[in-house]
Design goal:
- By secondary structure, the protein is of the alpha/beta class.
- It has helices at about 35-45, 95-105, 130, 145-160, 175-190, 205-215; strands spanning about 5-10, 25-30, 60-65, 75, 110-115, 115-120, 125-130, 135-140, 160-170, 195.
- The radius of gyration is 17 Å and the shape is globular.
- It starts with a strand and ends in a 19-residue tail after the last helix.
- It binds guanosine-5'-diphosphate (GDP).
- The site of guanosine-5'-diphosphate (GDP) has 20 residues, from helix 1.
- The site of guanosine-5'-diphosphate has 20 residues, from helix 1.
C-alpha cells in the first residue's frame, strides 16, 4: 500500500493551521511518549523529527497523509505536555493545543471562499469543523494511569467528538507484562487501548484501521472500533 506523507506547516498558533476541509487527526501525548517515532513508523518515512531532548519547540507540525486510494487527511502533531518545569500536569497543556481544539469545537462552519476554505458563521450547508477533527492520545504502555494522561484524556473526551487511546513502546514489555499493563491502562481510562510499537511495527495495521474509521466521512464509521483483545505477537 502506497503511503504519501508531506510536511505542510509548523504553526505556533491555531490560526496558522490549514483549513481545507480535510479530516484531521491530532496526536496528543506526554513529551517523549514516542509520538514522532510513531508518525514516522506509520507513514514509513522520516517526516517527523524524533528528539532525545524533550519539548523544545512549541509548534504544531502538520502533515498531509494519504494511504492507498483513500482521501488525504491531516495528521497534526501537537506539542507534548507534562514536561514544563517538571510539573506533570496536563493543565499545562499548551496554549496551542487548547487553541487547536477550541478552533475545532467552535460553533462555526467550514466553507469555500474563493479558492480558500474558511471558518464561516454559517450557513449549515457546509462542513462542520468539529466533525472533521478527532484525537489520538498516546500513552506509554509501561506507565498506566498517569495523572497527566488521565487529565488530558478527560479534557479531550469532553472537547473532541472522537478520541481513541494508543499505548506506545509495547515492545519494551514481556508478554506477561503487556497483559498486565494493558489491563491496568484500560481500567484507568475505562476505555479500550490499542497497543503499538514504532520499533517493531506491532499494532500499526490496527492503528491504520482506527485512523480510517476516525477520518471517515461516513458518520456511521466514526465510532472508534474496539481494538482486538488478542495481543500482538512478541
Ligand atoms: P516524542 O517526544 O513523543 O516525539 O518521542 P520520540 O518519538 O522522540 O521518542 C522518544 C524516545 O523513545 C526515543 O528515544 C525513541 O527512540 C524511543 N521510542 C519511541 N517509540 C518507541 C518504540 O515503539 N519502542 C521503543 N523501544 N522505543 C521507542
Amino acid at each position: 500500500m502506497i503511503i504519501e506523507a508531506t510536511f505542510v506547516t509548523s504553526a505556533a498558533t491555531a490560526s496558522g493551521l490549514p483549513r481545507e476541509g480535510l479530516a484531521e487527526i491530532a496526536l496528543v501525548g506526554r513529551s517523549n511518549v514516542g509520538k514522532s517515532s510513531l508518525i514516522n513508523a506509520l507513514v514509513r518515512q522520516r517526516v517527523a523529527r524524533t528528539s532525545a531532548a524533550p519539548g523544545k519547540t512549541r509548534l504544531a507540525n502538520v502533515y498531509r497523509v494519504a494511504r492507498g486510494g483513500a482521501e488525504p487527511f491531516y495528521l497534526v502533531d501537537l506539542p507534548g505536555y507534562g514536561y514544563a518545569r517538571g510539573a506533570e500536569s496536563a493543565r499545562e497543556f499548551d496554549e496551542l493545543a487548547r487553541g487547536y481544539f477550541d478552533r475545532a469545537g467552535r460553533v462555526g462552519r467550514v466553507g469555500q471562499v474563493g479558492k480558500n476554505t474558511e471558518l464561516l458563521p454559517g450557513p449549515p450547508d457546509s462542513l462542520d469543523l468539529h466533525d472533521l477533527v478527532s484525537a489520538l492520545i498516546l500513552i506509554d504502555a509501561r506507565h498506566p494511569g498517569l495523572e497527566s494522561d488521565l487529565e488530558a484524556w478527560r479534557w479531550l473526551t469532553a472537547t473532541v467528538g472522537r478520541c481513541a487511546l494508543v499505548a506506545t513502546k509495547i515492545d519494551k514489555l514481556s508478554r506477561a507484562e503487556r497483559l498486565r499493563a494493558l489491563k491496568a491502562n484500560e481500567a484507568a481510562f475505562e476505555h479500550p487501548v490499542l497497543p503499538v510499537s514504532a520499533s517493531t511495527g506491532e499494532g500499526l495495521d490496527e492503528l491504520w484501521k482506527l485512523i480510517e474509521r476516525l477520518t471517515s466521512r461516513n458518520p456511521n464509521n466514526r465510532r472508534p472500533p474496539r481494538p482486538p483483545r488478542r495481543l500482538p505477537k512478541s
